[in-house]
Design brief:
By secondary structure, this protein is mainly α. It is 83% helix and 0% strand. It has helices at 2-15, 30-90, 96-116, 123-145, 149-173.
Length: 174
């Protein structure tokens, strides 16, 4: 304990000495110091920008994977269920038992894709995914309301076109 007190007192005593003289700037070293500080600030700023860019790219990559994965998995099931409905209709069978599963799969796909859309996605990809969501719901509505064959086919063509465009943008974004 006594040793600690002595050490503290020596430290305080060492800080209490006054140095005589006049402070002056070393003008020969000042430009080098300023350049060093400027370079350090510049390097720090560049590092921060790089890290932020990497963070943004990571967020975008995750968002693309999430949305495009939701599109790929849910649209596959929806298209299979719609094809079963169309097959029953075209073969003259009662399409009634296939209507509900097709409608549910289309709406589920629309919900999955819609729920995965986020700001890090490019505006083009967001628009393509939203178009797919709208087209998916339109086909579900066409089945539910028993629209005429021509109108149904038109909505299915729109669904296929929007899915193709969204898939192309997903591939381009990855």
């Amino acid at each position: 304990m006594l040793g600690s007190v002595a050490t503290v007192l020596m430290g305080i005593g060492g800080c209490a000495s006054v140095t005589e003289g006049t402070a002056t700037v070393d003008t020969a070293v000042a430009p080098a110091y300023r350049a060093s500080v400027s370079a350090s600030v510049s390097a720090s700023s560049a590092t921060s920008r790089i890290r932020e860019t990497q963070r943004q790219q990571s967020l975008t990559t995750r968002a693309v994977r999430s949305s495009c994965g939701a599109l790929a998995t849910s649209s596959k099931d929806a298209i299979e269920k719609v094809n079963a409905f169309v097959s029953a209709f075209n073969q003259g069978r009662d399409p009634g038992p296939t209507e509900g599963p097709a409608i549910d799969a289309l709406n589920h796909s629309a919900d999955m894709v819609s729920g995965s859309i986020s700001n890090p996605l490019s505006p083009d990809l967001r628009n393509a995914l939203n178009s797919y969501v709208d087209a998916s719901r339109a086909v579900a509505n066409a089945i539910a309301t028993h629209v005429a064959t021509g109108e149904f086919n038109s909505r299915v063509d729109q669904l296929n076109d929007t899915k193709t465009k969204a898939v192309q943008l997903c591939i381009a974004s990855s």
